[in-house]
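Q: For a teaching handout, I want to show students what a protein-ligand complex looks like in token form. Below are the inputs, and the small molecule is NDP. Please produce the holo structure.
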Amino acid sequence: MSRGNDTGRVLISITDWDIEQWLAAFRTAAPDRDFVTEPEGANDPSIRYAIVWNQPREVLSSLPNLELIFSLGAGVDHVLTDQSLPDVPIVRIVSPDLTMRMSEYVVWQVLDHFRQGTTYRSQQKEKLWKELPQPAASAMTIGIVGLGVLGVASARILHSLGFRLCGWSRTQKNVQGVDCYCGEAGLTNMLAKSDVVVVLLPLTPQTKGMINREFLEAMKQETPIGGPVLINAGRGGLQSEADISNALNSGKLMAASLDVFETEPLVQDSNLWENPAVTVTPHVAANSDPETLATEVVDQIANFENGLIPTGVVDRNAGY
Ligand code: NDP
Ligand code: OXD
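A: Here is the structure, written as tokens, with NDP included.
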């Protein structure tokens, strides 16, 4: 790996998002560095870094001197599903800005279910003045599936609001104020205790499709707000939308907030759109902000060129 004060050329390879906005943000954040896009950057031996969101396949493998790949999101499934991915370290976003955005989304959705927003909005439409019994936050347990950067940050804020917390991760965690579980049996125990389940997992071969009938049936049925609630802001590939719809229809699930979907955009004929018990948002729980993240990524590159290990290096074997 080359080191020192040279400023390596950078390829920005983005689909789905506004590449011009990102390019401008990076050029502002590091005016002396050379940022290029495709097709100019493809096959270019002077490129040392690639900054990507859902890059076109074969692009990264065309760069003979690539040293680091930066994902512009916290998740890296969009990078790792590239069969031609070269064997260089992948760095994901670990950013206070993105983390706070996710915490906002989680707290927003938990509070909306907890304070019975759906019912009050429908009562308002009918000009109905009717008070509903309101439990205390301390009577509710929120289960966080995925106790990583985003899960722990959300748990901390929910804890400060008085909710009880439990959580599940691949390896055993010790998070203050959170009853922590791991392993298959741990998941069943955790789901059975949670009034609201918040999923903040990465999409990996192990987690794919895990929000299925079995998962939904393991959720606690009697809750202080009348039934169990699912919130998924991890990835759509984690869930079976057919199983979620069936659970809603059968009453096994009272309500759901879904920010991510098996196919995005959510298909027009999905019955989730019109289900009053479902809150659909278009994968916006924690957007990547170009100005903020460009500054953080160029700092990471500068630190790397000064011999430091970047923050957020992905474990390719674990898949996240
Ligand atoms: P982290 O890598 O910090 O945390 C992932 C957590 O999931 C860890 O606790 C990890 O366990 C756990 N986990 C992974 N695999 C398994 C498994 N097989 N069984 C049990 N637990 C598992 O990720 P972040 O918290 O930063 O982000 C989580 C995900 O959120 C991202 O991967 C992305 O998909 C999604 N996301 C969605 C956004 C949106 O706008 N909707 C925005 C940003 C992210 P362990 O602690 O043991 O490693
Ligand atoms: C992410 C996302 O992974 O926005 O950061 O989904």
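A: Two things your students might notice: The pocket of NDP (ligand 1) is lined by residues 73-75, 102, 146-151, 169-171, 173, 200-204, 206-207, 233-235, 259-260, 283, 285-286, 320 (CB under 6 Å). The CA atoms of residues 37 and 157 lie 39 Å apart.
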